[in-house]
Amino acid sequence: MSILTYILGWPLLAALALAFVPRDLRVVMRAVAILATGLSALLALKLFLLFPGAPADADGYRFVQQVPWVESLGISYCVGVDGINVGLVLMGAIVAFAAACCSWEIKDREKEFYILLLIMTGGILGAFASLDLFFFYAFHELALVPTFIMIGVWGRGERRNFATFQITLYLSLGALIALAGLILLYLDSGANTFSIPDLTRHIAEHPLPPVAQKLMFPLLLFGFGILVSLWPFHTWAPLGYGAAPTATAMLHAGVLKKFGLYGLIRVALPLMPEAAESWMSVLSWLCLGNILWCGFVAVRQRDLNLLIGNSSVAHMGFAFLGIASLNLIGLTGAILVMIAHGFLAALSFGLSGYLYQQTGTLDMNQLGGLLRRLPFIGAALVMAMLAGCGLPGFANFAGEVTVFFGAWKVFRAVTILACWGALIIGAVYMLRAVRSILHGPLNAEWPQVADAANPWRKLPFALLLASLLVFGFFPRLLSDKITPDAERIIERVDSPYGNGNVCLPGYDGAAVLTAAALELRVETDHSP
Amino acid sequence: MNLALISHEILLLLLGVGVLLADLWLPAARKRSLGYVAAGGVGIILLVSLLGLLPGTVGADPTAHAFGRMFVLDDLALFFKRFFLIATLIVLLMTVEFADRVPAGIAEYYSLILFAASGMLFAASANDFVLLFVSLELITVTFYVLTGFARSRTESLEASVKYLIMGALSSAFLVYGIALVYGMTGAFNFQDLAAVDAPHLEDPIFLFGLLFVFVGLGFKIAAVPFQMWAPDVYQGAPTPTTAFLAVGSKAAGVVLLLRVLFTAVPAVAAEWAPVIAVVASLTMLYGNLCALPQTNLKRLLGYSSIAHAGYLLLGVASLTQSGQAAVLFYLGGYLFTVLAAFMVAAAVLRETGAEDIESLRGLYHRSPLLATGLTFSMVSLAGIPPLVGFFGKFLLIQAALAAAAAAPILYAAVGVAIVGVVVSLCYYFGVIRAIYWRTDSTGHPLTPSMTARLTVGACLAGIVILGIFPSGLWESARQAVATLSLN
Q: Which of A2, A252, B79, B256 is buried most deeply by CB count within 10 Å?
């Protein structure tokens, strides 16, 4: 059995086991959840470390396991990783572990909560590890439904019911639209298989007719787009995250949301290259909607969770921009952004959850001066906010700057506006949040506010911060793995704008990346 | 004439008559347990049938005919016979659970269920308009009685009268349609009809006749615009009747529809596919939208069953083998899903007497097993992996999209189906919400009987196992539809 099956299997098995644990044994439930996700995270780390040395099959996938499921339809349980999803699996497993650690705020119906959390974890990891379209979709759906239930039951705020309702309808609709697209892809390919490697190989030989692509690609783009909160289909996100319990917001904003981007990169781009090209300029303007519109909306927020929610929508714009640029650098950057933002969103929502737990509010008009009482949490929050502005040294900078390099040759105006959005608007709301929450007079109403004293409480935040820094200082850990496989995808897309590596005569793609990385290193040297 | 071919039906009828006779001698206190005997008998028939020991089920000829080709025993018939036997078995157990709410004559209730079931078994094998009509009447007339069985409850009587009027009307349409078809072609038999000359197929009287036949069948499966009876009848009838109506009667309508469309008039079917797609869309839309504001659990399931009729028709409209196989698979999953819901309804609502969704409040604390059963049932109806409902919907949508290249209206129908699924999440989650979110309404724990626990457990197992390992059911569904003349 592939290590991937263990990575996604432990949480699901633990969920099943928890169903038989009596509900009084709260400590046991928490321990099982943390153990199972921790085990997954360790295995994912092992996978990440073993990845470069592992033998790749003909399609470039490693650690592949395939078990036929419904043979007449060509569905099989198939997992495997290449450079594109290995980082996502690692990020998902770490965030899931952090989310399980952050779940101590749940005081009622823990049993159901942890079961749902574990199902969600298994589903997310399964979706990223699957190389079969059917399981790819089914695992995502398996992870999605617990989200709705968790927001409905353990959510907070008066608008909880509305938020549950909205997020359920929006995301189910997005998922089903994408499903229709995936089924059409299966049918029109004529390969009678749901396996992504087989489909890719088949379509390389028999490209899909442009008419079919024209029908399918928008379904996938907008179906997945809704799942990733592509502007203007993003309105579910801030409200939903504002109402969600901490762990759910961490997992959804951090990991599950990336499913749509991953689907675009893994399925839509390589299999429907012609249609992809024709839609990319539209996508580049839509992603500007994410970056600027949601950035401005975030500036106006007075509730920390709504601010983080809007900023996470805004950050998705960078990933979309990287995809839209359709070249090696842009695509690599998009994947870096996905991973970096996963850690960042989880960290931000984890911290805001901690603050809410301590103060009972996230209204920034009421908060203030908390850095004195919460040195650890406060410092982590400052770092998270700075990472969100794209400060060099954090993984987000590596991702965003690579995206801009990639997009510059293709969408110059959009890139300029996006840079502005990233640097100025991001800095405005992030720094204002830092000022109004951490500085200024301390509200006397909260004498009980206490820092995370217990190492267990610190662990999730420390882990996420460490991941952001490690991948911020050494983005090559990811980009070296991503580039060869991203190149494979880009080769299929005959970009009308020319590939990034073609645009810079005398440099090949890897050299440009090295240049980007060098520049990065120079920048990090100057960072404090 | 080959009596061995109808061994399923003979055994079931004998069982029904036996139960009716046993009623004469058994003391009143022990009549309730006759249900176990009936269920056991059905279980034995099912087992023998599955093992292939019944005469007629094994033989060189995969499609055996009897009674002047009026009756056919092929894979499709066998699939549905076993389907109906499983449904009957579970419904009988549910009736035992429900028996104390039936004022008198519980043994008759059991035997009526058995008679209705034998009607369904005949329907599965109908190869002729006469047998189609007779088997449908056997089903419908027994259901008139079963619906009104709780004589002391006005709702039950009201449901019965509504069902009687609407049912009689649809039977009239059906028989009139059959008469017109026969008058124009001189054929009752489906194969003979398929062989009639082309000019008949364009004759408006012949087509009107067929339309009337489909009206009658549309009533059975509760497709728009013949769905009006469903919510009222589902709500008013005793719960086991409703369950049997939702599963058995609907499936009988579906198998007859498949037979008529694809063995008797395949040419007309190809022409009318857009109409079926439109009817499917309207049915999905109507069922899902009307289910939204419902507060009564059984009424909600009534509307949901209309919506599911729409999904089934979507598969039918695809006109392909994989579409019909998807319909069969969907029904197979629907059987366990819906029976689990009604079993829980029978067990819980017996306690409180009310049927409001509100009365499910705090069910989780009162009986975790029943709560789990209802939750899984709702989640599966909503079509969420890894439960069977998801794979069923997946197959139906896949089949419809596969056919859509030839008939673009199916794209629109799939769009409606997607909207319907999204809408349905709201009301299914409303039920789950009541089970877990809300605080307890009555407080005391609920201990379901062993029968109820076993039945719910079996349905749960069906929902989960068929969802995780759909291969077996899917292959047998594919095999079953191979007899239909489809591409």
A: A252
**Tokens at residue A36, please?**
């199972």
Q: Where are the domains of chain B?
A: 265-487
User: Chain A contacts of B397, Cβ < 8 Å?
Assistant: 179-180, 183
Contact A143/B at CB under 8 A = no
> What phi and psi values does residue A75 have, to the nearest 5 degrees?
-100, 130
DSSP state letters, A138-192: HHHHHHHHHHHHHHHHH--STTHHHHHHHHHHHHHHHHHHHHHHHHHHHHHH-S-
Distance CA A210, CA A206 (A): 12
Q: How far apart (Å, rounded) are the C-alpha atoms in residues A221 and A226?
A: 8
**Residues of B with CB below 8 A from A187's CB?**
398, 401-402, 405
Size of interface A-B (CB pairs under 8 A): 66
- Reported as half-sphere exposure (CB side, CA atoms, 13 A), residue A333 has a value of 36
In a domain, A389, yes or no: yes
Selection from A415, A155, A432, A417 nearest residue A311 by Cα: A432
d(CA B367, CA B364): 6
Structure tokens at A227: 């799942």
Per-residue model confidence as pLDDT tens for chain A (528 residues): 888 889 888 999 999 888 888 878 888 888 888 999 999 999 999 999 988 888 888 888 888 888 888 888 888 898 989 888 899 999 999 999 999 988 888 887 888 889 999 999 999 999 999 999 999 999 999 998 888 888 888 888 778 888 888 888 888 899 999 998 998 888 888 888 888 888 888 888 888 888 888 888 889 999 999 988 888 888 888 888 888 888 899 999 889 989 999 999 988 888 888 888 888 888 888 888 888 888 888 888 888 888 888 888 888 888 999 888 888 888 899 999 999 999 999 999 999 888 888 887 788 878 777 777 888 888 898 999 888 888 888 888 888 888 888 888 888 888 888 888 777 888 888 888 888 888 877 777 766 777 777 888 888 899 999 999 999 888 888 888 888 888 888 877 764 444 444 333 333 444 455 555 555 544 444 444
Q: Which of A503, A344, A489, A334 is nearest to A410 (CA)?
A: A503
| Chain-chain contact of A70 with B470 (C-beta, under 8 angstroms) | yes
Contact in structure between B6 and B131 (CB atoms under 8 Å) = no
Domain of residue A452, residue span = 273-521
CB B263 within 8 A of CB B191: yes
A478 within some domain = yes
Q: Rounded distance, CA A117 to CA B396, Å?
A: 30
Number of residues written out for chain A = 528
Q: Which candidate, B226, B228, B200, places its Cα nearest to that of B213?
A: B226
Stretch (H or E) spanning B386: none
Phi-psi region of A307 (alpha: psi -120 to 50; beta: other; left: phi over 0): alpha
CA distance B78 to B49: 9
What 3-state DSSP class applies to A442? Answer: coil
Total tally of structural domains belonging to chain A: 1
Cβ proximity of B125 and B253 under 8 Å? no
A221 within a domain of the structure (yes/no): no
DSSP of A54-111: SPP-TTS-EEEEEEEEEGGGTEEEEEEE-HHHHHHHHHHHHHHHHHHHGGGG--S-HH
Q: Decide if B429 and A186 are in contact by the 8 Å CB cutoff.
A: no
A427, two tokens: 């800095």
Q: Which residue has the tokens 């439930």?
A: A29
Q: Would residue A310 count as lying in a domain? A: yes
